[in-house]
């Protein structure tokens, strides 16, 4: 059972380049999330998708776009990468939180922008 | 902005000792969750406690929630070297499915 799969695991970009981070889950979850984790900052929500066909901004959406391709897949795009976007990016999924449900995380994409 | 603030930021204990980690938050919540993150890996859910609950147990984990003080504690009993990790509290509010994470506590368990 793979859970949440993120690709790639590592990436180095030059300033101004674009790239898409991929995320897929096989747990039939409705909700999916993108976070970034920086030293001393914990996890900050970039975008989330409560269900297929919907996306909403989180705490730090500037410089990013997302696509909820289908129920399984939720991608994060950097159109013009900046050094400030150097971070570890995590994708997560869960059932809707009405009754409180845990989030399941992938192992992250480590992104460096030079 | 972080809703949860964990305390202490770092904790070092001897194997076999108990580890207590605290989390404070600012606004009303409907649930609070604790997660563990091993180095280089994603977060793993440990335990969830709802706003109408005061205490929950799961194996060697005990979580308490005091909504009047807006605080929670995570107790790991009889710690093991394998418990070495970062621990995060996360709060859920409102009707949507989002969580707000704290900055985390680094726990080191010395063999």
Keywords for this entry:
heterodimer; A: 114 residues; 51% strand; B: 111 residues; mainly beta; six-stranded mixed sheet; five-stranded antiparallel sheet; globular
Count the strands of chain B? 11
Helix content of chain A: under 10%
Topology pattern of chain B, helix = H, strand = E: EEEEEEEEEEE
Oligomer: heterodimer
Order of helices and strands of chain A: EEEEEEEEEEE
- Please mark out the parts of chain B with pLDDT under 50 across 5 or more consecutive residues, or reply none: none
Describe the structure.
The complex is a heterodimer of chains A (114) and B (111). Chain A is built from no helices and eleven strands. With 114 residues, chain A is mainly β. In chain A, the strands form two sheets. In chain A, strands 2, 4, 5, 6, 9, 10 and 11 form a seven-stranded mixed sheet that branches. Chain A has a four-stranded antiparallel sheet with strand order 1-3-8-7, with no helix packed on it. The model of chain A has no long low-confidence stretch (mean pLDDT 93). Chain B is mainly beta and 111 residues long. In chain B, 0% of the residues lie in helices and 56% in strands. Chain B contains no helices and eleven strands. In chain B, the strands form two sheets. In chain B, strands 2, 4, 5, 9, 10 and 11 form a six-stranded mixed sheet that branches. In chain B, strands 1-3-8-7-6 form a five-stranded antiparallel sheet, with no helix packed on it. In chain B, strand 4 (31-37) and strand 5 form a beta hairpin. The mean pLDDT of chain B is 92. The chains are: A mainly beta (114), B mainly beta (111).
Task: Reconstruct the topology from this structure.
The complex is a heterodimer of chains A (114) and B (111).
Chain A: E1 4-7, E2 10-13, E3 19-25, E4 31-38, E5 42-49, E6 56-57, E7 64-68, E8 74-78, E9 87-94, E10 104-105, E11 109-113
Parallel strand pairs in A: 2-11
Antiparallel strand pairs in A: 1-3, 3-8, 4-5, 4-9, 5-6, 7-8, 9-10, 9-11
Chain B: E1 5-7, E2 10-14, E3 19-24, E4 31-37, E5 43-50, E6 55-58, E7 61-66, E8 71-76, E9 85-92, E10 99-101, E11 105-110
Parallel strand pairs in B: 2-11
Antiparallel strand pairs in B: 1-3, 3-8, 4-5, 4-9, 6-7, 7-8, 9-10, 9-11
